[in-house]
Amino acid sequence: MEKRSEYIEKLEKSLTEYDAKLDKMKAKAALIQGDLKAEYLSQVANLEEKRDEFVVKYGQLKESSGHAWDDIKVGTHKTWSTLEDSFEKVVSRFK
Predict the structure, then answer these.
(1) In this structure, which CATH number among 1.25.40, 1.20.5, 2.40.10, 3.90.320 belongs to the domain 4-93?
(2) How many percent of the chain have pLDDT more than 70?
(3) ∠ at Cα 16 (85, 89), nearest 5°?
């Protein structure tokens, strides 16, 4: 079983990598024109909202202890999985 500190460190690294990917997507928006640009920006905004939801869960996870930590870890993991899935869908949509 993964230790708490290792899990939190892994999430921090993943979030940093995600933020870098999101920054690249934002930069790519400057290259897109027309109606596709509006849709792309909407998708990026959606990803930012999902990221913010994850950050809230992540904050709760870092502050929790005992049995609450186990419960919040499950919710945090689900939120991260949703975030990753959403990101992959947007990336594949706009390739």
Answers:
(1) 1.20.5
(2) 99
(3) 20
